[in-house]
Every structure is written in C-alpha cells, then in structure tokens.
Design brief:
- Helix content is 38%, strand content 17%.
- By secondary structure, the protein is an alpha/beta fold.
- Bound molecules: NADPH dihydro-nicotinamide-adenine-dinucleotide phosphate and guanosine-5'-diphosphate-rhamnose.
- The site of NADPH dihydro-nicotinamide-adenine-dinucleotide phosphate has 26 residues, from helix 2 and strand 5.
- This is GDP-mannose 4,6-dehydratase.
C-alpha cells in the first residue's frame, strides 16, 4: 500500500485524547514537524485543556491556524464520522481512553465502551469516510496486555494475559486493529507502550502522585503520603520520547506492531526512594504488609503509609519491555533515564507547589 501516492504532501493529523499527557506531547511534536494538528476534546463542565492551551491562539474560540480542536467523544460514532469526513486526516492517533487501571474495576462497562468499542467506532468511521486506503492509524496499546507475564522481558511475541477491565478492553482494541489491517489492508499499527510519565502525567497515577506529595512535604505543605502496592515493578520511560516512537511507526513502509520500553524496571518503592532522595531525605522501611511504613532516616517521622484502598483486585506485578524491534526497524531508543525522569518530575512539582500551594 502506498500512502504517499494518495496523500501527496498533505500532513494532517487527527489525535483523539489530545488533552491527555501523550496528546499534548504528540501535538507539540507534530506541529514542529509542520503538521496541521486536529484534536478531539470532550465537553466538560470546567476547562479540560490545560495541557494544550499553549498551542492554540484563540483559547476560547478553539480556533487556530495549524492547531484545531473539535468536540467529540469515543462513544459517539456520528461525530467521529463527521470530523474525519471534514478534515480528511493523513494520520490518526487513537490516544483517547479511560486510562486508569484501578478505576476500570469500578467503571468496567464504560471502559469497554470507550477503550474497546470506541476503537472499533473510529476504525469504522475511517472506512465510512473513504480514507481507509490512504490514512495511517496508530492505536495506543499497552504493556497492561501482558498482565500476568508469561516471559521476561516482554516483546511483540509474548502472550497476553490481561488483569483488569482496562487491559481486557485494550486487548479487544489491539485485535480489532490487527483484524482491520488484515481484512481491509488498512495501514494500522499497535504501539505496545510501557508506562511513560512526565510532569504532565495525570495526578492519580502513582509516579505523579508521589512527586506531587513529596514536593508538598519538601515545602512543609504535607507530612506524609498514602500508597498501595509498593512492590509492583514497572518499566518507566518519558512520554516525550514515546510520542516520537508513535510517529515513527506510521512512517514505515508496512504497518506493524511495536513494543516501546526502556528495558529497565523499578519498583514503586524505588520510585518513592528516588523522589525523597531528590529532596535530601532517605527513607527506611519498617514493618510488613499493611503495617509497613516508610520513615525519614534521622528523624523517624513517618512519610509513607499503606492504604488498602489503593490495592487492585488483580495486580500486574512485573513489567519489563524489550523494544529491540523498534530499535532495529527505526532506530528508536529512549533518551531519558529513570533518574532524570524522577528529577524532572520532582523539579516541576516543587515549582508548581511553590507557585500554587493548592494545586
Ligand atoms: P490520559 O489519561 O492522560 O489521557 C486520556 C485522554 O483520553 C484524555 O484526553 C481524555 O479526555 C480522553 N478521553 C477519555 N475518555 C474519552 C472519551 N469517552 N471520548 C474522547 N476522549 C476521551 O492518558 P495518556 O495520555 O497517559 O495515555 C494516552 C493513551 O495511551 C491512552 O489510551 C492510554 O490508555 C494509553 N497508554 C498510556 C500509557 C502511559 O503510560 N501513559 C502506556 C500505554 C498505553 P479528558 O482530558 O477530557 O479526560
Ligand atoms: P498502571 O499505572 O496501572 O501501570 O497503568 P499506575 O501509576 O496507576 O500504577 C502503577 C503501579 O503502582 C501501584 N500503586 C499505585 N497506583 C496508583 N495509581 N496509586 C497508588 O496510590 C498506588 N500505590 C501503588 C499500582 O498498584 C501499580 O502496580 C498505567 C496507565 O497509564 C495505563 O493507561 C497504561 O496502559 C499503563 O500504565 C501502561
């Protein structure tokens, strides 16, 4: 399939989930590459565009030159068809999702509607609008698909064993992308991305929760934080590095699926220690299970407590990705290390809390 024949020099991207962490970095990346960037945002009762507000010139009119927002929702097929027919994107990045694993146990049906059926709706909207022979499609797949891992490290051939309603919904999305690629010859790729973080990470994901709370402790605005499972291990990279990999996947000759990861794994406990290390505190652990606490070395003040409400009915204990295929095919490697990631997030949250202690 040749997309350059049909698209000429047009570079028009449509991003669902543009207001999220990845949507904001991807928008910046594509605008820098000269793309016209369109994004779908949901109607909300208060502003939900804080991560992208710097990108459009008329924030209240939602009108810009190369950056435009459209109201829509992954649960509404007709709006997806209308938007795609109107803008005729050459690349579509499906980042929209109810993306919180723990919340998906409470909102399981909604998570399936958005993350699974929403992906199907978008693929069908592309076909209905007649651009399926020319547009390229990126699906935000996830290392959560591996769940109860069958092998270490995980690569594109590792079997899946999802452990949450979120992961089950994303499993459907993964396979419907593969199916539409095979059935209709669509240029559709799954990026199986391992956890990636940044100062723009949602406040309820564990890394950002830790850096925000440790920043508050540093400034005397709080004394401790509560967490769930400290022993799960994640392969954490920086979101800015990972959005480049999304784009690179769509620049290949043939559509394929790729794992994107750092190849390094750390426990939540190690992340906590690194964050406190950044403010010059050493944490020592005492007790076991729900009685465990993290104390500040020297003073003995309790800084970390365990709260069972943050445990999940089924946990993903260990993730470690192998992205050698991406390295081989398009020379992608992560630039930001774990230590640099923690430092950037800590510095940003300290600055944020200094500016606005209520943030
Ligand atoms: P975020 O949670 O930061 O962003 C999710 C985006 O989806 C937001 O823009 C949100 O809008 C939007 N959204 C949610 N529900 C709907 C809906 N019904 N209709 C339209 N838009 C909706 O996620 P990230 O940026 O971190 O992740 C991007 C994608 O990558 C997600 O699909 C996620 O599941 C996946 N992923 C993320 C990884 C990570 O480590 N960050 C790793 C692997 C995969 P609003 O702002 O209004 O809430
Ligand atoms: P994850 O990210 O579930 O991997 O999904 P999250 O940061 O929520 O959890 C990581 C690990 O930390 C443990 N944990 C806690 N998690 C949260 N959120 N809050 C806590 O207080 C806490 N204490 C311990 C969790 O149990 C878990 O083991 C993210 C999302 O971005 C998904 O959308 C994406 O697909 C995957 O990463 C890859």
């Amino acid at each position: 399939m040749s997309t350059s024949d049909t698209n000429g020099d047009r570079k028009v991207a449509l991003i669902t989930g543009i207001s999220g962490q990845d949507g904001s970095y991807l928008s910046e990346f594509l605008l820098n590459k000269g793309y016209e960037v369109h994004g779908i945002i949901r109607r909300a009762s208060s502003f939900n565009t804080s991560r992208i507000v710097h990108l459009y010139s008329e924030p209240y009119a939602h009108k810009g030159g190369k950056f435009q927002l459209h109201y829509g929702d992954m649960t509404d097929s007709s709006c997806l068809v209308k938007i795609i027919c109107k803008i005729k994107p050459t690349e579509i990045y499906n980042l929209a999702a109810q993306s919180h694993v723990k919340v998906s146990f409470d909102l399981s049906e909604y998570t399936a509607e958005v993350d699974a059926v929403g992906t199907l709706r978008l693929l069908d909207a592309i076909r209905t609008s007649g651009i399926d022979g020319s547009a390229k499609f990126y699906q935000a797949s996830t290392s959560e698909l591996y769940g109860k891992v069958a092998e270490i490290p995980q690569n594109e051939k590792t079997p899946f064993h999802p452990r949450s309603p979120y992961a089950c919904a994303k499993l459907y999305a993964y396979w419907i992308v593969v199916n539409y690629r095979e059935a209709y010859n669509m240029f559709a790729c799954n990026g199986i991305l391992f956890n990636h973080e940044s100062p723009r990470r949602g406040e309820t994901f564990v890394t950002r929760k830790i850096t925000r709370e440790v920043a508050k402790i540093h400034l005397g605005l709080s004394s401790s934080l509560e967490l769930g499972n400290l022993d799960s291990k994640r392969d954490w990279g920086h979101a800015r590095d990972y959005v480049e990999a999304m784009w690179l996947m769509l620049q290949q000759e043939t559509p394929e699926d790729f794992v994107i990861a750092t190849g390094e794994t750390h426990s939540v406990r190690e992340f906590v220690e690194a964050a406190f290390g950044h403010i010059g505190q050493e944490i020592v652990w005492e007790g076991t299970g729900l009685e465990e606490v993290g104390k500040e070395k020297g003073t003995g003040i309790v800084r970390v407590k365990i709260n069972p409400k943050y445990f999940r009915p089924t946990e993903v204990d260990f993730l470690l990705g192998d992205s050698s295929k991406a390295k081989e095919k398009f020379k992608w490697t992560p630039k930001v290390t774990f230590v640099e990631l923690v430092k950037e997030m800590m510095d940003a949250d300290i600055a944020l809390m200094k500016q606005n202690p209520m943030a």
